Amino acid sequence: MRDDDVTPCRCRSEQLADACQHAAGSRAHGAAKLGGDRRLQLPPSRSAYEHVPPPLPRTSSTDRIRVRLTRHSQTASVRQTEKLSATVVAPYIEPLGRLHHALCPRQVLGVRVALCAARALGIPFPQNDKRTLILSEIDGCFADGLMVVSNCSVGHRTLRVVDVGKIAATVIDTQTHQAVRVWPRPGTRASACVYADAEANRWHAQRLGYAHMPDTELLSLQRVPVPAAAAPLLGAWDTRTLCTRCGEEVFYDRHIIVDGLHVCRVCASERDVGDAAG
Prior knowledge:
Largest sheet: 5 strands, mixed
Radius of gyration: 37 Å
Number of strands: 9
Helix content: 40-55%
Strand content: 5-15%
Number of helices: 10
């Protein structure tokens, strides 16, 4: 085949391409000229739909009822909390609200125990230093009540949980080396309801009653020696050693001595730990 046999085919292809471009330009010009007629507008590109929000899901009648009940519960909770505004708990409602969804009776007990111990020891709360240590005998809401009043915390090494499952706390003044243990009196649940007889809900009555009751009826207080459980908090904060068995570092003198060697409490046996405790 000769070269001049291919030339007519190339020309025909170019002519077809020019015709297609001319037709496309004519359609675009017509659409722009008749822009007021939406029926003749070109469809938008796919990217134009990317920012269109998805349709909202249809809510059932059960969902709408649940929303109304939730709003009612929140409104009722606010009204109940407002009743505490005239009690000693009032300054601590907001900080407790940042920690918990609802203010509960145990939080109120934590507040009352911390305030009672501060008065007995003559120490200022909230503290700005590490003068006071608190040993809480339970974790959870009660410990948070102690924390918001005293400003003691696990992070500052001024609050420690010695979990024995009791609503009680030992507060220690490290300057005078005095300590008091405070806990609720037996029967306080029933006694609290007397101070909130207008409350139909027992849970709300206990919470309000704990806030209103005088210390002499709500709490028991006993002066005690500084507990041995406070020793790790009273020790030096910058001490560390290596466990001779696992090789890991142990801080705050938490190691024990076994046969003259430093051993962490994880590697030590229960008997070794018991012997170290004396």
